[in-house]
User: Fold these one by one.
Assistant:
Number 1:
Amino acid sequence: MDDLTRILKGLPFFEGFADEHLALLVGCARNERATAGSFLFREGQDATTFYLIREGSVSLNIHAPGQGPLIVQTVSENEPLGWSWLFPPYTWHFDARVEQDARMVVFDGLCLRTKCDKDPVFGYELIKRFSRIMTQRIEALSFQLMDVYGERS
Amino acid sequence: MVTIQRNDLQTLFDALERRGYRIISPTVRDEAIILDTVHSADDLPKGRGEEQSAARYRLNRREDDALFGYAVGPHAWKQFLYPPVQTLLQARREGTSRSSGEPGFALLNPEGADEEPAMAFVGVRPCDLAAIRRLDAVFLQGPFQEPGYARRRSRALVVVAQCTAPSGTCFCASMNTGPSAPDGFDIALTEVLSTGPTVYLAESGSERGAEILRDVTCRPSTSEEISAAARAIESAAGRMGRHVDLDGLSETLRRSIEHVRWQQTAQRCLSCANCTMVCPTCFCSTVEDTTDLTATIAERRRRWDSCFTLDYSYIHGGSVRPSGMSRYRQWIMHKMSTWVDQYGTYGCTGCGRCITWCPVGIDITQEVAAVQHPSIESVTPPRENVHG
Amino acid sequence: MANAPDLMAESAVLAEAPDPMRPRLFRIAKFTHNTHDTFTVALEDLETGAGIGFRPGQFNMVYLYGVGEIPISISGDPQDRSVVIHTTRAVGTVTKAMRSMRKGDTLGLRGPYGVPWPVDRARGRDVVIVAGGIGLAPLRPVLYHCLAHRNEMNKLVLLYGTRSPVDILYREELESWRARFDLDVYVSVDRGMEGWHGNVGFVSTLIAKAPFDAGNTTAYLCGPEVMMRVCATELIKRGVPDHELFVSMERNMKCGIGFCGHCQLGPVFICKDGPVFPYPRMRNLLSPWEL
């Protein structure tokens, strides 16, 4: 088993993935590092990848002139980042800035989409995992937006 | 059991006054039977009866000279045991903190409350005795005792008048709190009108009561009188104007928190808090803080409160029960369900006051029945209250 | 028949008992501003110069001359009886007046009242403390207790969420705790800002990240009701048994001892049956609207 396969096997996101599906993933993946302060992607850029953070953390920001960046969410160890690669027009909606030096596995979006189309069982497994993460993020985001700690008016 | 002639009843009042009691009993004021200080048996509502229905209360004349020929008026005994306004604390400003200008202060000693005469409650209906015992559970049997209530209650003498005159809104028989009280009193009277001239059968329920009865002009009761008294009480039990089905009631309500009935009833409820003010077991209070103009003396006063107010459930930022629905539900749930969890009894004693004094005639017995038996349709409010 | 005389005898004694509605006077020995809207007072009894004994999770009724009285949880170290510590947020009439007080000022105190956190339950288990906003204040005594009895439990985890980095309570203390090897501290804010490199996201998102053995965990939760509901659900999802979750509740209180009625939530009085409850007892009471 090569390094990348071992890494993917150890990620909770891929828990229960069949070996042949892991092999398909590995074919689209590479390891990367990023330094704190750098950007993984910017709002409006083409979304060609998704990330699995192995170490460090990355924040998702919206920047407004005069207000500075608003951090929407942070993503850290063992969490996936980015789903804009899944759907047209494949465009990022946030700025992703590295907060703490990060190590991650980067997946090529086009490569994955092609494999999903060819192997719907693989595709379904992958989409199931993304759907779950999306649901969790939306739930957490609604409570975050409620501003539950603030003074109610 | 002893029998007191109608004309000798004054000797009971005399015996109480001699012992220094402030006698409080039903008496007529402004065409209602209220509770107030009296000195003589003649102050009782002689020959007066009443007509009670949802949102309706009228005094009328009886054809006899009964002194206890009515059920209950708008007053309950809680006003004497737990007055509507009580001073909790007085403090005096002393000096000023150098750093912030905020006052230091000292607490003043409470005024000598022991100077108050002990009270004798004469003519307590069994439903109202049950209510007093509900309040005992709240103020005396919790982790803390309310000292003012404890003091007034322990000194108060209770003369029950077993109920032979239920009203149209009464349902103590279904709540198992009347029409007669088996215990919990110092003296119990039963008014007997059927054996000739009006007489009062009396029994003592405590050493204190027995001692007082020894000073009252009386004779041993005849068996005819005793059975006439029993018949009068039995007849009262059969003449209750309202009924509640207690079978599984608290549990049914607990499962009906989201019942649509609460919203329907809330459309009629004015949140006026009348029901909580007349209810003999409603005990909620709030506290208000005041200072005099120079802020030299500060006072904390406890004041009766109602779960129908918005402030009642206020936590920073808002009210926990902003809607009339949730406030009405809180009240009825407490009386008929959660009180059982808290104190092991229902919070309602079936006195009927909340039905009589509700300005729109909301009837607690109909409300619980509508939840218990969904086939019962929502009942139209009484005609006299339909406006426009 | 016997009830009436018994009651008389019993309450004749009760009438002699001290008035539980009458406060004792305390002096502010130390006043600290925590965040822009939170502050901490350390109080000494005017007569004894000392604090009071209490158990983590209990509260006092705090009286301000001429202003009013409110319940505030005790947030100091239960082992330290030299002062009474209260941290609170200036949101109401009393707390806003309190914020303008200074060292040397006098206030009234009744307590301690209420059911404490069952801290002994954590023996031999992992302890997860989940706090939201000012909810960290009533939980700080649990942390002090756990750190003082650190060898009695396994993992000790603090998950803390608040609105933004400037709203983080006890910041220096959190940093010193985070530096310890025997305590895992995770903080998340709902709104990040420039210069904040920590977690952004609702506090519930920390539950999946933190290392603890869910099946052998006791968790203590305090914060806004929504936050406690969401976090309890997440903890149960992760495998913590529901009867090992404890929540601390807040309701209007005028007396703190079961007389005023205001703090009722269904069948419970928050003041005397709580404020700390096992989560299964609260779950059904938290879901109906406006109960």
Number 2:
Amino acid sequence: MIAEEPPAETAEHAARLAIRKTYKLFIGGAFPRSESGRSYPVRSASGDFMANAALASRKDARDAVRAARSAFAKWSGATAYNRGQILYRIAEMLEGRRAQFIDEVAAASGDGVSAASEVDAAIDRWVWYAGWSDKIAQVHGAANPVAGPYFNLSTPEPTGVVAIVAPAESSLLGLVSVVAPAIVPGNTVVVVASEERPLPAVTLTEVLATSDLPGGVVNLLTGRVAEIAPWLASHMDVDALDLAGVRDAGLATDLEIAAAENLKRVLRPVPASSDWAADPDVQRMLTFMEMKTAWHPKGI
Amino acid sequence: MTATVASNLSEVARSDAALRAFLHGLPGVDQVGADQRAAMLGTRSIKTTAKAWALDLAIRMVDLTTLEGADTPGKVRALCAKALRPDPADPSCPSVAAVCVYPAMVPAAAPLLAGRAHLASVATAFPAGQVPLSVKLADVESAVRDGADEIDMVINRGAFLSGRYLEVFEEIRAVKQACGDAHLKVILETGELATYDNVRRASWLAMIAGADFIKTSTGKVAPAATPPVTLVMLEAVRDFRAATGRQVGVKPAGGIRTAKDAIKYLVLVNETAGADWLHPDWFRFGASSLLNDLLMQRTRMSTGRYSGPNYVTLD
């Protein structure tokens, strides 16, 4: 993998050397390079070189799962109110970097007009999910009528560590639409960013790192889906798999087979034609929650 | 140095002054050099079949340890079962070398192990060792009587650090005598010895006094085992065998939690003391959580997928 040099400076900027950003992984709240030392060039929609992103290996995936597992107890044990506050905070931080995100999304998609509305929709989506944090259990939990002197209560609880392949086309809105519903209930995630458009995802992790989100709740890998995803799908310490961004039907089938080994919850790929801007529903949250039903004697 | 040592070794403990002269006459340890060499050996890449071999060897070298105030006979029995059959799903997985417990737990463990694994007991008022010698010896004798065939003693660090070497020497001697046939491991508690020079001196002191093993730490003091300290001790056992012909084992204990760390130690053993020490009779890991990581790595090697903590026991 040979790192490419960016194009020569244009005349008006020549006076000052460019300070270029290094796009790294996000694991356990830190920003490491890939342990493999590899990187790959990321190009804009028009084919121009933009940056070198880290090319994550299976060992980065392993480290990310370990970080996600160790963050799970604290994040799932936080109160729903507290998780909601942190998600609101993420939206606030995103708002502050709105212009930067619009630039990066526009460069990735080549569509400067819709970039602003995509970023706005992504911010609004964090807020929407943040609001669900302390409501999902009361709306979807239940006090069940049973034929006996018992209270019978069902409450949804987080599944555990969720591995996500982020949507390939929608670099920010699509990513937010799969990560937010997974972490709202208290899951921790390892997400593989869009292979072709990873830069907005890396910038999003800088927002996450400064929003009081505990390290390890969200871990981001950039690189080849076909290389990393099989290790996540077969990992015995991953509890659920979201294949939203997998484009290769054969690979999706293989991943689902590997996931069956420890009975992972699996969400199948989302068709490329689907519109991430459409209003979300609660289904993505509920998929990554397990219903716990408790019986308790009544009266006496 | 070797020749001088061989001729003098029986003589060095004749007086405190002679012992001090001998120990302070040992060559000093180059601290930066030891740190760098240990770090460099830690970068070796051990893969595939070599890794599988190293994992199995490391499992066979584990002294599966529980040294908590909250230990119960039930917990010790569970640990013994795990020691004999670490991976119940895989009969090809070897047993560990020994189970290491407090003296009060020896009666619970002895009938379960029944010679299929060694039973080590810490004694001599572990971990501080701050009791009179008579109490230490009674501690050792009761552990041996109850069925321990290895005794892990702590040296008197207070005496060592204030230079009363003969006192330390004679204490080890007395404990060795009390052990009878049981193997004696001498814990230097390197975290309290301050310098590598002291580690080298304490290693020689213990070996001259009759230790069968020298062990880094109790696990109750930080830092516990580190690669450079283990390197210094491995050099000491190598030089001691060259001088006297007697081979002494080494046991790093405390702070070794991952299979990766364990393999780094094996590299250190092979490159420092030599392949003769790559055997459970001559090198041990004092550890508890290490075994689970070794088992997870072993499963990863045999199944091709990463395992998780849900698939090993909680100890």
